Amino acid sequence: MPAGEEHKNLETVNYLWKSFLENGLDRKSTVIALGGGVIGDMTGFAASTYMRGIDWIAVPTTLLSMVDASLGGKTGFDLPEGKNLIGAFHPPKLVLADVNFLKTLPERELISGMAEVVKHGIISDPELFELCKNGLSWVKDNLEAIVKRAMAVKIKVIEQDPYEKNMRATLNLGHTVGHAVELVSKFDLRHGEAIAIGMAVEAKYSAKVGLASQSIVEAIESTLKKLNLPVEIPNEMSHAEIIKAMRVDKKKNAKSIRFALPVEIGKVELIDVDDLEDVL
Ligand SMILES: NC(=O)c1ccc[n+]([C@@H]2O[C@H](COP(=O)([O-])OP(=O)(O)OC[C@H]3O[C@@H](n4cnc5c(N)ncnc54)[C@H](O)[C@@H]3O)[C@@H](O)[C@H]2O)c1
Known about the structure:
Blueprint: H1 10-22, E1 30-35, H2 37-49, E2 55-60, H3 63-69, E3 74-79, E4 82-89, E5 94-95, H4 107-124, H5 126-132, H6 136-141, H7 143-160, H8 175-184, H9 191-208, H10 214-226, H11 239-248, E6 257-264, E7 267-273, H12 276-279
Parallel strand pairs: 1-2, 2-5
Antiparallel strand pairs: 3-4, 6-7
Helix pairs in contact: 1-2, 3-4, 3-7, 4-5, 4-7, 4-9, 8-9, 8-11, 9-10
Bound molecules: nicotinamide-adenine-dinucleotide.
Nicotinamide-adenine-dinucleotide (NAD) is lined by residues 3-5, 8, 35-39, 41, 61-62, 64-65, 68-69, 72, 74, 83-84, 101, 104-105, 109, 112, 191.
């Protein structure tokens, strides 16, 4: 399949279904998704619907897909109106994450994946957050430890709440603003870069409404910067467009949008917000 978020669409999923048929896959077959999050999300979705659902195995090859996308069973694809609007919960039977794959990963992709690692630290592993403060070259020498710890955070959350009834929504930290910024950038920003911006903006909002202290905001911003991640919404981006994109995002409910806001390093709270301009 061609690389890139712009191919995470129904056309590619259709191509997968047809390939499954052409290659004689039946209800007992298992599909192996070898690749990053885009490949995993679409392969998992195609498997979830092919002949009413067949098994799949995730072999994530990007940092982001190892620590995040391959875990938790969310599969799907994008519509022009927004990311991941169509999908299904269909967990892989097995996730095989081998950090040797990361040796060939472009640096920008590695940095993008670190945004989700930082996120997992903020959600529930202050020690992991501390490790991220060591910066990019330390991280490169300690990938196995980082990947194991970051996977453990997500596994803990999804085991407690597999279908996002409550606490799984804490994993959306940085994602409400982040997804919107990613969409408005027309995917010029990598997923993790957009999430880094989202985390910084949402942390500032959390301080503004009195949930987090200024020192938390500074810790989050400086850690992201040490990993060469962006923390500001690009100047040329229109707030109106970002707000529109946030409203389409699947995490909205009727009147307000639910944000996962950092309270301290290791703790996140779910808060409904009406005034989105105030967040930006
Ligand atoms: N399902 C979930 O819970 C979940 C969670 C987070 C993100 N996601 C999704 O994951 C996607 C982003 O995933 P991603 O960051 O892995 O991006 P990606 O799948 O687009 O991969 C990034 C790039 O790296 C290349 N690549 C992959 N592995 C490589 C390797 N080992 N060496 C060299 N190049 C390699 C790919 O060809 C691609 O060009 C988004 O669509 C996002 O919505 C899903």
